[in-house]
Amino acid sequence: MDDSGGSGQMRPIPLGTELQEIIAGLNERADFEAAIRGHALIEGTFGSLIQTYFRRSRDIDFETNEARQESIKKARTDFEERGARWGFTRKITVAHDLGIISPKLEHNLSVINKIRNQGFAHSIRPVTFQATRPIDIPRECEMLTLHDAYNDTLEAATGIKMSETYRVSSEDHQIFLADEFGAVGAYVLFNDEELLTPRGRYLVAVRLAWIILEAQTLILQHRKS
Predict the structure, then answer these.
(1) What burial letters (b/e) apply to 69-101, b meaning 16+ CB within 10 Å?
(2) Is 5 part of any domain?
(3) Which of 173, 166, 201 is closest to 189 using CA atoms?
(4) Residue 183: what pLDDT?
(5) Phi/psi at 134 (nearest 5 deg)?
(6) Into how many domains does the chain fold?
(7) How many other CB atoms are there within 10 angstroms of residue 155's CB atom?
(8) How many other C-beta atoms lie within 10 A of the C-beta of residue 121?
């Protein structure tokens, strides 16, 4: 059963002004719509990352171990044949098993998915981020890893130091990514006050997950070997 809440097809990745408009839009939405749309933003970028990884895996040996290479080929074949039906949980499992995402990012994506599905999408009653039924949403939001979540994930699965290709600033929770030609960039900002509420923590987690997934996609596109 597909638990992604969507068709599983790849969506265009929003960049620059478009991303800022989406983030601003999430802040203005009621809790239910913010939860669903935030998840959808990540889902599209996550799908593009996996698609890019499998496409590049035909040209680049991400693993020297034969057994691991075979695992990549098997997952790639399954994705090419049935990827449109992969649910969000399936994507998380495969991405983590192949080393595409780090354990911290896997954790955050799983929590975001649980909040979206069990807390909002499958509830028959109106739900807010303060709700404790059908799941305790404030408790789930407290489980999200936010401070420094990007520090050990931006380089995951690539082995490429971000400083070699991108400029990254985490001062005051600001992140700016730009390739060496200045062709692609994204900017995310959050303040500590947002982390005081379940809704704020969820939306910050969405922004950080987006920037990590986007950065990894860009790195894979640039990777030579």
Answers:
(1) eeebeebbeebeeebeebbbbbbbebbbebbbb
(2) no
(3) 173
(4) 38
(5) -75, -20
(6) 1
(7) 18
(8) 15
Do the domain assignments include residue 11? no
Buried b (16+ CB within 10 A) or exposed e, 18-28: ebeebbeebee
Long-range contacts of 181-184 (CB under 8 A, 24+ apart): 184/15, 184/218
DSSP per position, 42-110: HHHHHHHHHHHHHHHTTTS-S-SSHHHHHHHHHHHHHHHHHGGG--HHHHHHHHHHTTSS-HHHHHHHH
184 and 216 in contact (C-beta within 8 Å)?
A: no
Give the Cα separation of 33 and 49 in Å (integer): 24
For 17, the 3-state DSSP assignment is helix
The Cα 210–Cα 204 span in angstroms is 10
Task: Quote the CA–CA distance of 110 and 7 in Å, as a whole number.
Answer: 19
For 14, the token pair is: 């929003």
pLDDT tens digits along 13-65: 444 566 667 777 888 899 999 999 999 999 999 999 999 999 998 887 777 78
Residue 50 to residue 76: CA distance in whole angstroms: 9
User: Would you give the DSSP letter of residue 12?
Assistant: P
Note the residue count of the chain. 225
Domain that residue 27 falls in: 16-222
Give the span between the Cα atoms of 211 and 42, in whole angstroms: 9
pTM: 0.78
Q: Does 179 reside within a domain?
A: yes
Any domain includes 6: no
Residue linked to tokens 């130091």: 161
